[in-house]
Design a protein that fits this description.
This is Capsule assembly Wzi family protein. Keywords: Membrane, Transmembrane, Transmembrane helix. This protein is mainly beta. The chain has a domain at about 60-130. About 10% of the residues lie in helices and about 45% in strands. Strand 9 (about 230-235) and strand 10 (about 240-245) form a beta hairpin. The longest helix has 19 residues, at about 35-55. It is globular. Residues about 1-40, about 50-60, about 225-230 and about 320-325 have low confidence and may be disordered.
């Protein structure tokens, strides 16, 4: 008996055409064009100040839009969930909208308001904009029109509408010190604007940023065949989507996310470009935020103890593009995905999820004969695997299950299992088609502090998980995984601690250990999602086969909020990589940063 769900493969964005520049060469000089960011940021501030200057109406208490996937608001709700105070509220389908957050806060205060500490009540007030954030009073003393609601730099409201505008900034500089005594000056320069609001039942959010970044180690995949034809090469870097490589050491990229949504009693519909993360833990095997943002239509249905989510998405394939001639343009081929997830509160303490995903590419060639979008996958209440079989099984389907159990207030245990393909007769063997993965984790809250979260998570991903015989159906966007960032043929252990008081202070610590077997030169043992499974080198592959690579990282940061959402921080990254072929690399990278309106983002290889 054979149960087959076609496959995709994933892993870090490493491939034969990867341009891996040696870390031992310091940058020739710091990047140019620093005047451009200043002009850009000046325009953003002028627009914001122009909006402030015309405001005469009172502002609303709520900031619209969607939450950051790993922002303080999301972490506060997850802590309350772990403490057992949100028994029928869904917070694991990230990002939540501001309306979902407000509904969760309403449930929290209505049912467990007497159990909240004074500082937790302050958090609720902050998230509702009922209490100004640190620094708002100082800004208002300089000019009374700044931060009118205590949170947003500029905000205006009226009968049935509202608008908020905030600057976005992420400026960091540091020194990466390698084990061979080489030093590299690292930096990041991100500046942009965020606008959000609502008109009647329609809400919206848009974030625009322009970015330049010098990482400690450059990992860049050029467009198509890996050749750099000009000083500025087009391609991608881990987690960044479309990237321009300047002077062989500086990432230059532009990001734009935008969501328009409709909210009613039972439904929330979103259309736009954004990231997602589905699951009860830090990472997800099915839908994660390891890749850059992508175009999507999402429908969320909440009724009784059920939450049913549909996601229809368009992804970008970079694997088959050849570099055009100078001055030419080539459209990247599209991949499509359809996902649905049903989550249920079986009891107040136990939550269950089942999910299914399918990837397909509407292209005509000798392998897959399809020239159109597969309409059958738009059905929101159908089993995708059945549709795939009816049309000839050309696509990449996966299904899975997960659960979350609050053993006692403050201690939550969770797990997730993803099945890509399985042959029952080969269970327990190293057959290449036994493609599955699992996550187990624990979340602790309320120990020693109301604002401290502790989390431990372990993942195991079999070789060839996420890949497919037809490479356009691989479970990747650009060259980044859409599932777990560790990739196939890997073990991953993550320990994290986050301290989020309602005052101006914030700190975090994350330690990650990953061991993987990467593909040897000229072989495919299931560690690269962009390779067809038909090019596999072996029929049986054990875990960690290939070239053994062990990597551990420590990321720590601490800082203070000097204006609403403006943080000054000191941070440290320690990274160690032991590779059987390439040897050992150690990096210690202290740095300082200034971030405004953006969450902390650890540097290094995303």
């Amino acid at each position: 008996m054979t149960f087959t769900l076609h496959h995709a493969q994933l892993g870090p964005s490493i491939a034969p055409d990867l341009i891996d520049l040696p870390p031992t060469r310091p940058p020739s000089d710091l990047p140019v064009r620093m005047h451009t960011p200043l002009r850009f940021l000046s325009v953003v501030f002028l627009l914001a100040l122009a909006l402030v200057s015309i405001m005469t109406q009172p502002v609303s208490a709520q900031t619209d839009g969607v939450l950051f996937i790993d922002g303080p608001a999301q972490r506060f709700l997850e802590r309350q969930k772990t403490l057992g105070r949100l028994p029928n509220t869904f917070v694991s389908n990230r990002p939540l909208s501001a309306y979902e957050m407000q509904a969760a806060l309403d449930s929290l205060t209505a049912n467990y308001g007497d159990e909240l500490s004074a500082e937790e009540e302050r958090w609720v007030a902050r998230l509702r904009n009922e209490e100004p954030q640190p620094g708002a009073g100082l800004a208002q003393s300089i000019w009374g029109r700044l931060y009118p609601n205590g949170r947003d730099m500029a905000a205006v409201t009226g009968d049935g509408y509202a608008l908020q505008v905030n600057p976005l900034l992420y400026a960091s500089v540091g020194q990466a010190r390698f084990s061979d005594s080489t030093n590299v000056t690292t930096w990041r320069n991100t500046r942009g604007v965020r606008a959000s609001g609502h008109i009647g039942p329609i809400f919206f959010e848009s974030r625009l940023t322009e970015n330049q970044e010098r990482p400690s180690q450059v990992q860049f995949v050029s467009q198509g065949d890996g050749r750099i034809l000009d000083e500025a090469a087009q391609g991608t870097a881990p987690g960044l989507g479309n990237v321009l490589l300047q002077d062989q050491e500086v990432y230059d990229y532009f990001t734009a996310t935008g969501v328009v949504g409709f909210r009613s009693r039972f439904f929330e519909v979103r259309f736009g470009r954004d990231q997602n993360s589905w699951g009860f833990g830090r990472e997800s095997l099915n839908v994660s935020d390891a890749a850059s943002a992508y175009d999507q239509l999402q429908i969320r249905t909440n009724v009784w103890r059920l939450e049913y989510t549909n996601l229809f998405a368009r992804y970008t394939e970079l694997n088959r593009i050849r570099t055009p001639q100078r001055g030419g343009n080539t459209a990247y081929p599209s991949r499509y995905g359809a996902h649905h997830r049903l989550a249920m509160h079986v009891t107040d303490r136990f939550q269950l999820e089942v999910f299914e995903s399918i990837r397909f590419a509407p292209q005509t060639d000798s392998i897959v004969n399809r020239s159109n979008f597969e309409l059958g996958y738009l059905n929101p209440v159908i089993f995708y695997r059945a549709v795939e079989r009816d049309i000839g099984s050309p696509d990449n389907a996966m299904l899975g299950i997960g659960g979350s159990w609050i053993a006692i207030d403050g201690a939550r245990f969770y797990g997730q299992f993803l099945l890509d393909e399985l042959r029952v007769s080969e269970i327990g063997s190293g057959w290449w088609g036994n493609k599955w993965g699992w996550i187990l984790g624990a979340d602790i809250a309320g120990v020693g502090s109301d604002h401290l979260s502790l989390q431990a998570e372990v993942a195991r991903l079999r070789p060839f998980l996420y890949n497919h015989f037809y490479t356009p159906n691989a479970y990747v966007h650009y060259r980044d995984p859409l599932g777990h960032p560790a990739g196939p043929n890997a073990y991953d252990v993550t320990l994290s601690a986050q301290f989020d008081p309602p005052s101006r202070w914030q700190a975090g610590l994350t330690t990650r250990w990953t061991q993987r077997g990467r593909n040897p030169a000229g072989e495919n043992i299931g560690a690269d999602p962009t390779l067809s499974s038909r090019t596999r080198s072996r029929g049986y592959v054990d875990m960690l086969s290939g070239v053994l690579e062990t990597q551990w990282t420590v990321d720590a940061h601490a800082g203070a909020e000097i204006l609403p959402q403006l943080f000054v921080e000191a941070a440290l990254r320690v990274e160690s990589t032991d590779d059987e072929v390439l040897g050992t690399t150690r990096i210690v990278q202290p740095y300082v940063l200034l971030r405004w309106g953006l969450p902390f983002d650890a540097p290094g290889l995303r």
